[in-house]
Specification:
The protein is an alpha+beta fold. The protein folds into 2 domains: 70 residues; 188 residues, no CATH class. It has 11 helices and 8 strands. α1 crosses α3 and α5 runs antiparallel to α6. The radius of gyration is 26 Å and the shape is globular. The two termini are 26 Å apart.
C-alpha cells in the first residue's frame, strides 16, 4: 500500500462488500473508495477472485491445467502411491482407504493452492491501469432510449419520478426525452461526473441514475450538462477545470439553491467498479460548508461527506444519507 491513508484494513474491505461493516465504518469506506485507486483495484480483485472461486471446477490436467500444475500433481500422486505400497495390508482395508482419501484431498488442496497462486501472479502482472483516457462515445451511450428512460426513473420512487422530466444522453449531449410536470428531473449520469482525480473518471460502464428536485434541477443539473458538453467537445481535464472555475466566477454556474437535493435509490444503477450498485441514498447540496455542521463522518452518524466535488473547481459541499429501501420499495442492504 502507498502512503495514502486508508481508513479500513484490507480484510475489512471484504466485510464492507458483504454489507457487514457498522454504518460509520461503511460510510467512511465509501468516501475513501471513490477517491483511492489502490483500494478500488483491491476491491475489484476481491470480487474477481470470489467469482473465480465460485465458478472453479476441477478439470483433467490435459485439458485445463498448465504443465507446472500437472507436474506438481503427478509428483504428489507418485508419493502417495509409494506410501500406499509401503504400508502393511490390513484385513479390513481401513488404513489404505484413509490414505487414498487423504491423498485425494491433498491433491485437491495442492491444485487449489496452485490455481490461486497463478491467479495472484496474473493479477499482479496484468493489473489494469483503470481508465486512463476516454473511450469512444458509443461506449457511454445506451442504444435503447426507452431503457435509459426507465433507468433514469428508477432513481426515485414512482410517486416522484413518474411526473418528472427525463433526460437521455445523445451524441451531442443530454436531450429531453419526456417533459415533466412536478419540477423534478431524472437522468443517468456518466463517469465524468466523478472527481477529476478519480481512477474511474472515464469508466464507460458507469450508469448513475439520479432524480434532482426542482432546486437542484435549477442549480446542480447545469453543471452536469456543462461537464458533458465539454467532454463531448474533446476538452482535456485541465481545460474543463478552468472552464468550470470561470463559469462560477461569471455566474454562468450557480451555487446550490437552498433545499437542493437528489434521489439515488436505483437498484439497477452502476456507480463504478469499486461500488457496483452500492446502496440507495439521498444527496444534499450546499455552498462550501464545514462537514461538522451536519455531523458528517462522525461515529454512528448516517451522514457522509461525498467527495464528488471535494478539492475540485466547484464550490459545492455534498452530503450523503443512505436509506433503507430501493425506489421500488424493496429492502436494501443494511449499512
Amino acid at each position: 500500500m502507498s502512503t495514502i491513508r486508508h481508513p479500513i484494513e484490507e480484510e475489512e474491505l471484504m466485510a464492507y462488500l458483504d454489507g457487514e461493516l457498522p454504518a460509520d465504518q461503511a460510510t467512511e469506506a465509501l468516501s475513501h473508495l471513490e477517491l483511492c485507486p489502490e483500494c478500488q483495484t483491491l476491491v475489484a480483485d476481491f470480487r474477481s477472485v470470489s467469482q473465480e472461486l465460485m465458478a472453479w471446477e476441477v478439470e483433467s490436467p490435459e485439458v485445463g491445467i498448465s504443465s507446472e500444475i500437472s507436474a506438481a500433481l503427478g509428483e504428489r500422486l507418485r508419493e502417495r502411491e509409494a506410501a500406499k505400497v509401503s504400508l502393511p495390508r490390513l484385513k479390513n482395508g481401513v488404513t489404505t482407504s484413509r490414505w487414498v482419501w487423504a491423498g485425494a484431498l491433498t491433491i485437491v488442496c495442492v491444485a487449489v493452492g496452485l490455481v490461486l497462486t497463478f491467479i495472484s501472479r496474473n493479477r499482479n502482472e496484468n493489473r489494469p491501469t483503470a481508465y486512463p483516457s476516454m473511450a469512444s462515445i458509443e461506449h457511454y451511450l445506451m442504444p435503447d432510449r426507452s431503457a435509459e428512460v426507465a433507468l433514469a426513473r428508477s432513481a426515485a420512487p414512482a410517486a416522484i419520478s413518474s411526473d418528472a422530466a427525463v433526460l437521455v444522453l445523445g451524441w451531442r449531449g443530454y436531450e429531453t426525452a419526456i417533459e415533466g410536470k412536478n419540477g423534478f428531473v431524472c437522468m443517468v449520469e456518466r463517469s465524468w461526473m466523478s472527481p477529476f482525480n478519480s481512477a474511474e473518471f472515464w469508466n464507460p460502464k458507469t450508469r448513475a441514475p439520479m432524480c434532482f428536485n426542482p432546486a437542484a434541477a435549477r442549480s446542480i443539473l447545469p453543471l452536469t450538462i456543462k461537464r458533458t458538453e465539454m467532454v463531448l467537445a474533446g476538452m482535456s481535464k485541465a481545460q474543463m477545470i478552468d472552464s468550470i472555475k470561470a463559469g462560477f466566477d461569471n455566474k454562468e454556474l450557480e451555487a446550490p439553491e437552498p433545499g437542493a437535493m437528489c434521489y439515488m435509490m436505483s437498484r439497477t444503477g452502476y456507480l463504478n467498479d469499486a461500488l457496483g450498485h452500492h446502496v440507495p441514498h439521498l444527496m444534499f447540496y450546499f455552498p462550501l460548508t464545514d462537514k461538522s455542521s451536519w455531523g458528517a463522518d462522525l461515529p454512528d452518524s448516517p451522514v457522509t461527506l461525498n467527495p464528488q466535488f471535494q478539492g475540485g473547481p466547484e464550490p459545492i459541499t455534498e452530503f450523503v444519507i443512505p436509506v433503507g429501501k430501493w425506489s421500488d420499495g424493496t429492502a436494501a442492504p443494511v449499512m
